Amino acid sequence: MRTLAYSMDEDKMLCEAWMEMGQNAILGAEQTGTAFWKRVHDQFHEQRCYEPHKFESDRNETSLQKRWAFIQSEFSKFVGAYEDVERRPVSGIGIKDLV
User: 37, 42, 46, 92: least surrounded by Cβ within 10 Å?
Assistant: First the structure.
């Protein structure tokens, strides 16, 4: 699977770019999906050139979209498991131990 080839720096930068574009008060929800991912792609490639990121990457928009879908899926699984643990507390064990 191609998504395994992503580095932690790329994943982190993708998440930061996605958040930056998704929370942009000027553009907001008025963006089309195509425009949104173009902006995420541009932000990803612009910011990766500067510290603290500074890494090489040639990811295209489609690759970033697919990686984001993978990250989002894995995060949803974690949240579901976390919520399950919270609903069934075990006496004497803290939430960090359960996670």
Answer: 92
